[in-house]
Design a protein that fits this description.
The protein is α/β, with parallel strands linked by helices. It is about 30% helix and about 25% strand.
Length: about 325
Amino acid sequence: MRRYNVAVVGATGLVGRTFLQVMEEYGFPVGNLRLFASERSAGSKINYCGQEFTVEELSENSFEGADIALFSAGGAVSEKYAPIAAAAGAVVIDNSSRWRMENGIPLIVPEINIGDFSGGGIIANPNCSTIQSVLPLYPLKKYGLKRVCYTTYQAVSGSGQKGKNDLFRTLNGDSPQFYPHDISKTCIPEIDVFLPDGYTKEERKMIDETRKILHMPELKVSATCVRVPVPNSHAVAIAAEFENEITVQDVVTALEGQDGVTVTNRPQEHVYPVSTLANGQDEVLVGRIRKDLSCENGILMYSAADNIRKGAAANAVQIAMRLIKEGKI
Ligand code: A2P
């Protein structure tokens, strides 16, 4: 079997380390592996498959010979280095938001739209909350999806190590240094920067990316994104409205047939999607499925997923594995 030279950018971060963990778990066919971060962590060691690798400082020459480059080092790094990696011949899978809405850049959830990749260049990995929202919506498109409203409950790991540190710091009674309020004592309805229309950029990402991934540029979507005092795994309450009649059983049947989704819907036994159940797995859990009593053909459901795995690292590695399997890399 062919082996692929892989460059990981942001290898010391939460998502970067999880790229490696997921690749190891999936038995990724790695040839040469190179790990990059900022000059701060150059020289530090990271283990992969029992072998120690030295982290290198990222530079313009980092991508020579790379077949695949996995990026998770923030938008500024992706803006500068993703085109350099692509020009060096690597297929880039970028976890930042920098390239997601760019024309001609595929934005991929592999169970939905792997066919949007036509070869070479940069692939964007969607926003974490978006992935776990579009996966349950996709098999329901056939009922004439016409409107979606999201409310998110997003874990602090979505802010990277800084977010986790702030939760534990404030749990110990110290003042917050990262979030604008004490995340150990409150939910914070502010994720990413505010835009002139009163939405946050995180909310805007969910709206725009849902339309792009589902190939529904006119879909009516809105979102409220909230940071909650949960270490890991996001949840999303999804209200969806359809042109056609749809029953709870229709939803369950459609979701049971959807790769990447596990129906978790036995509320009487307290079995529904919770972060503690989602942690460490790559499935999107969906439950609390019921009719929306406020409109004619409406459904309410609730999803939970590991935002660092399916919401970021695992989705990216799954994209690479699918493209390898299809002979496209
Ligand atoms: P470093 O550890 O050297 O700062 P997280 O999202 O968990 O905070 O991780 C961010 C990742 O992005 C880290 O691996 C970090 O490396 C990396 N990173 C941040 N800035 C740069 C940069 N200018 N060049 C390369 N990697 C960077």
